Amino acid sequence: MYIKNAAELIENGETETARRARRLSLEAVEAALGAAEPGRLIKSKLSVRGGQLFVQDTSFELAKFRRILVIGGGKASGAMARALDSVLGDRITAGIVNVPDSQTIGRDGSGKIELHRTTHPLPSRAGIEGVELMLDLVGKPTKDDLTICLISGGGSSLLPMPRDGVSLADKIEVTRALLRAGATIQELNVVRKHLSSLKGGWLAQRLYPSVVLSLVISDVVGNRLDSIASGPLYPDSSTFSDAVHVLKKFSAWEQIPDSVTALLRRGVEGTIPETPKPGSRYFRKVSNVIIGSNDDASNAAVRRLKSRGQRPVLLTTSLEGEARFAGMFMGSVLLHADAMPEPSSYVVGGETTVTVSGEGRGGRNQEFALGAAMKTDGNQRVAMVALGTDGLDGSTDAAGAIIDGSTIRRGRSLGFSPEEILRQNDTFRFFGGLGDLVMTGATGTNVNDIAVAVVV
Question: Which of 17, 114, 281, 426 fits a 20 to 30 Å CA distance from 253?
Answer without folding.
Answer: 426
